[in-house]
Predict the structure.
Amino acid sequence: MDERLERIGRLARVARGLEREGAYNGAKLVRAALDSELIRYAEAEAPSGGGRAAEAADALVADIGADLPAGLAPLIAATAAPVRAGRTIPLADAPRCHVCRTCGAVFIGDEVPVDT
């Protein structure tokens, strides 16, 4: 496995372990390092230009759309056309997403259930 991916995985595991034990402030620090690593890793391979970014979004949905959390694939697919055209994506077309820090469930929009 790529050394950078192993480091990303290790940071994610440690952050999750700290969260599980209620050490949220410690997890926050580890997650800062995790976010930094993710950004650097992605930047090395990120598509450049609207056409390439849109193609990457299309390919992502084609390749793993069925494995994405419910409702995300069509929303991601819909981003390709405005990106290709150099337009912004309005909030109405890309609603807020929340990820449960306990189970990892993704909730789209503002309706986040109290119990999952």
User: Anything to note?
Assistant: The mean pLDDT is 93. The chain is about 55% helix and 5% strand.
